[in-house]
From TrEMBL:
Organism: Microbaculum marinum
Protein's recorded name: ABC transporter ATP-binding protein
The ABC transporter domain, residue ranges: 14-260
Keywords of the record: ATP-binding, Nucleotide-binding, Transport
Tagged with keyword Transport: yes
């Protein structure tokens, strides 16, 4: 029988240590540390200008940190290029939509899967290899479209989708990468209450199925309802880290929002 020693619980998926980013004299992210455990749905909130997007961009490799380390499943990924980080397992959606309106919904989503399965020279030379690759891309794309309820729109131009559906398209595209960690940047922005409800359910279900998710979101009721844990930033610093109920009643958090976050 193996006796598990103290401190031998599951290892974090993501570890952020002393992460800092300066823009000239402005310290946008200031010595932030936290970890995200497997299958955890972690909310990252804070008032406008708190540093959420800057932190996100550092995690995704879009912005090099001034100081600090980022580890994904124990591996140091600090400062790696965005495509390398995506290959290693971090997929993201963007605050502003990145949808190609004239391409079909299927093609928009398959961009993620193409990134995952690569484009290989061998594919053009070895008979059957290119077809197998295309099949895998199609399978991953179809699975993601089904997951997000977009399969009936697969052949339509993405420009025909509603705003809410375009946001779902971005989540589908991220899922085709089969990520270890999904970064969602304000997915509920611009959605109506029904769409937000459906999105909340989806995000919660994905986490319950084992996906680790970091959610930046201004929709406070949504964050409070779906997240396992919440990290709060204010002026670049982490001011709270805990369960939604504790964070909601934290005096420092209330003060940061100049009143009641609700
Ligand atoms: N490229 C940049 N150059 C200079 N300053 C920047 C840059 N990006 C962000 N900042 C500044 O860094 C601070 C943090 O901005 P950031 O966008 O990360 O905040 P945020 O929490 O995501 O805000 P919001 O909720 O409004 O999106 C702000 O003061 C912002 O003006």
């Amino acid at each position: 029988m193996t006796v598990r020693g103290e401190g031998t619980g599951p290892a974090p998926v993501l570890e952020v240590e002393g992460l800092t980013r300066d823009f000239d004299a402005l310290r946008a992210v200031d010595d932030v540390s936290f970890a995200v455990m497997p299958s955890e749905l972690l909310g990252l909130i804070g008032p406008n200008g708190a540093g959420k997007t800057t932190l996100f961009n550092m995690l995704a490799g879009a912005l090099p940190p001034t100081a600090g380390r980022i580890r994904l499943q124990g591996r140091d990924i600090t400062g790696l290029a965005p495509n390398r980080i995506a290959t290693l397992g971090i997929a993201r959606t963007y605050q502003n939509l990145r949808v190609f309106p004239d391409m079909t919904v299927f093609d928009n989503v398959s961009v993620g899967a193409i990134g995952r399965f690569g484009v290989s020279l061998w594919g053009t030379l070895v008979p059957g290899l290119e077809r197998r690759r295309s099949d895998r891309i199609a399978d991953a794309t179809i699975a993601a479209l089904e997951r997000l309820g977009l399969i009936d729109h697969a052949d339509a131009p993405a420009g025909n989708l509603s705003y809410g559906q375009k946001k779902l398209l971005e989540v589908a595209r991220a899922l085709t990468l089969a990520p270890t960690l999904l970064l969602l940047d304000e997915p509920a922005a611009g959605l109506n209450p029904n769409e937000t409800e459906a999105l909340s359910l989806l995000v919660r279900t994905l986490a319950d199925e084992g996906l680790t998710i970091l959610l930046v979101e201004h929709d406070m009721p949504m964050v409070m309802r779906v997240c396992d844990r919440i990290v709060v930033l204010d002026s670049g610093r982490k001011i709270a880290d805990g369960a939604p109920r504790a964070v909601r009643s934290d005096p420092a958090v209330r003060a940061a929002y100049l009143g009641d976050p609700e």
